[in-house]
């Protein structure tokens, strides 16, 4: 039962722009909002350096001018083709044309892009791309994270570690007035009044039993935005990285990226990626994409691998075999030393040196849909913005490898600029929304109340297994309907009984898990609802009972919550194009 709101200890403070999420999208938004003259507070659910950006390989799709065959229009077309043509065309065009300028920003911040010489970046490619265009951070995602953290400290931007956004607080007009925040480090609630709020909380990969994402990726921002009245788009599309570790359990699901990186196709679009074999020695991907083969897009590869495993042609441990090309080992070691270290520690020296087959399996990685945004990251809620993996529309039904890093830079900046502009025109009443924040905090205190109950981890594991089995890579109508029935039962019968085992408030990780459950359940229902509605196979969405792509479904599914009911609508794909920039930036030589 909810706790009496009058008894809730609620600390009041204020800022101009509140940003939930300390990954690169949130940090880039914070830099832009601060530079526009606004006070900024960044919320980090854990330590601010422990984000999904840091875990990435640091690959960055952009048109640098070094490949004369390539162009922003070619990048745009690759993005549309990968996304099965349901991307928001304007968002995809903005990504292709602004990515290089944001790469220059990172270089100005101190990032070292991998180079052949002072004026030439090292270029490579990922699965699904037409041309060699990808640049990379020499320190992978760690480098990108560290230079951006430095910029926040340099600007004096306040970063709050172990602060989880719990709810968006709004006034009677539906406008954002602040955020209810759980300060886990002190075990108290904070109401941070603000003029605008940016959701940059990352994705939802922890919805699945096998995941490549960090433990904090529980879909918080999407669930919170949904409850605030924002509309969701393309939420049925969940990207599974094709290859990840199969064992040991401590690293199962951790990404190994794509087969292209383990073969000469990483450098030559006409060459082969690493071969994928089932236990019968067959190159099974040839049945699914005989042209691009193992250099195909992530959706095709992940589905092909999972079908082999489900049909009994996988290894006893639950994977398939990838045969890397030994001649690319030295290049791979230079680009991705951390990956080689992980292969050595978990699989052994022959696999780490590309001298033996590597067991791989798909793993939940990237949420392709999310909050429906316009080109300046505005949601349907006045004052609420979204960027990065929490936003939908950029990638459509599937994302190109190497396109998440430019996405979070391009749209992180745009969200920060727009949120700052909105904040500049608003007044701030610290007490507006305070009562609503107290009521919400009282409701979220229930898991701490005495009494027997169900631990959050038990419910979380049930959601993760159900999502993996029934709302994962292979879907069908009956399973999706059954999953929705279970989710409804969990919400009705189980969620009211969730209790944490410790009543201590400070750094009570289990209490945070109890709050995460509501977000996980909301997003799980969203995904299953949209997946049931889309009666076709497209991109990362595969329906066994509707195995073909259907031109009639070249539409976006949009969902919002009205009361406790999901309202579903479809819309024509937005093919509006952003205007081309007047000039293209030239390559800046390293200093």
Automatic annotation (TrEMBL):
Ranges for domain FAD-dependent oxidoreductase 2 FAD-binding: 16-404
SUPFAM superfamilies: FAD/NAD(P)-binding domain, Succinate dehydrogenase/fumarate reductase flavoprotein C-terminal domain, Succinate dehydrogenase/fumarate reductase flavoprotein, catalytic domain
Record bears the keyword Flavoprotein: yes
Fumarate reductase/succinate dehydrogenase flavoprotein-like C-terminal domain boundaries: 461-578
Alphabetized GO MF terms: oxidoreductase activity
Cofactor: FAD
InterPro entries, per the entry: FAD-dep_OxRdtase_2_FAD-bd, FAD/NAD-bd_sf, Fum_R/Succ_DH_flav-like_C_sf, Fum_Rdtase/Succ_DH_flav-like_C, SdhA/FrdA/AprA, Succ_DH/fumarate_Rdtase_cat_sf
Pfam hit, one: FAD_binding_2
Keywords tagged on the record: Flavoprotein, Oxidoreductase
Protein name per UniProt: Fumarate reductase subunit A
Organism: Agaricicola taiwanensis
């Amino acid at each position: 039962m909810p706790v009496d709101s009058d008894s809730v200890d609620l600390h009041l403070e204020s800022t101009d722009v509140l940003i939930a999420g300390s990954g690169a999208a949130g940090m880039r938004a914070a830099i832009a909002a601060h530079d526009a003259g606004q006070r900024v507070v960044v919320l980090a659910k854990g330590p601010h350096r422990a984000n999904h950006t840091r875990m990435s390989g640091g690959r960055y799709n952009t048109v640098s001018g070094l490949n004369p065959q390539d162009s922003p229009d070619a990048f745009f077309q690759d993005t549309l083709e990968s996304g099965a043509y349901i991307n928001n065309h304007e968002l995809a065009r903005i990504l292709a044309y602004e990515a290089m300028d944001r790469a220059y920003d990172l270089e100005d911040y101190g990032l070292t892009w991998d180079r052949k010489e002072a004026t030439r970046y090292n270029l490579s490619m990922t699965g699904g791309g037409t041309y060699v265009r990808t640049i990379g951070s020499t320190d992978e995602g760690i480098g990108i994270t560290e230079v951006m953290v430095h910029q926040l400290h340099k600007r004096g931007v306040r970063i709050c570690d172990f602060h989880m956004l719990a709810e968006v607080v709004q006034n009677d007009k539906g406008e954002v007035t602040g955020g209810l925040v759980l300060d886990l480090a002190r075990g108290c609630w904070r109401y941070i009044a603000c003029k605008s709020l940016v959701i940059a909380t990352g994705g939802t990969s922890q919805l699945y039993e096998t995941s490549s994402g960090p433990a904090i990726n529980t879909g918080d921002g999407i669930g919170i935005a949904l409850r605030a009245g924002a509309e969701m788009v393309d939420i049925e599309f969940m990207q599974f990285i094709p290859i990840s570790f199969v064992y040991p359990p401590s690293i199962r699901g951790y990404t190994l990226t794509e087969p292209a990186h383990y073969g000469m196709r990483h450098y030559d679009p006409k060459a082969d990626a690493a071969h994928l074999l089932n236990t019968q020695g067959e190159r099974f991907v040839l049945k699914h994409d005989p042209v691009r083969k193992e250099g195909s897009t992530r959706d095709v590869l992940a589905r092909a691998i999972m079908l082999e495993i489900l049909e009994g042609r996988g290894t006893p441990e639950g994977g398939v075999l990838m045969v890397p090309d030994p001649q690319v080992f030295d290049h791979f070691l230079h680009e991705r030393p951390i990956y080689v270290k992980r292969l050595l520690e978990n699989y052994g020296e022959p696999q780490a040196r590309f001298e033996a087959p590597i067991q791989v399996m798909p793993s939940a990685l990237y949420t392709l849909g999310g909050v429906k945004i316009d080109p300046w990251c505005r949601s349907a809620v006045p004052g609420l913005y979204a960027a990065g993996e929490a936003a939908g529309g950029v990638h459509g039904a599937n994302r190109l490898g190497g396109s998440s890093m430019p996405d979070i830079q391009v749209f992180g900046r745009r969200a920060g600029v727009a949120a700052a502009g909105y904040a500049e025109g608003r007044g701030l009443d610290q007490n507006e929304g305070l009562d609503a924040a107290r009521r919400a905090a009282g409701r979220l205190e229930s898991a701490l109340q005495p009494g027997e109950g169900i631990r959050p981890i038990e419910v979380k594991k049930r959601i993760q297994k159900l999502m993996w089995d029934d709302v994962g890579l292979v879907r069908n109508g009956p399973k999706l309907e059954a999953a929705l029935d279970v989710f409804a039962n969990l919400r009705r019968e189980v969620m009211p009984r969730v209790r944490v085992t410790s009543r201590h408030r400070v750094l009570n990780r289990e209490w945070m898990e109890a709050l995460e459950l509501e977000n996980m359940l909301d997003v799980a229902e969203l995904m299953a609802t949209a997946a049931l509605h889309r009666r076709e196979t497209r991109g990362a969405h595969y329906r066994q009972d509707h195995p073909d792509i259907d031109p009639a479904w070249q539409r976006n599914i949009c969902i919002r919550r009205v009361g406790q009911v999901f309202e579903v609508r479809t819309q024509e794909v937005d093919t509006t194009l952003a205007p081309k920039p007047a000039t293209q930036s030239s390559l800046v030589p390293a200093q």
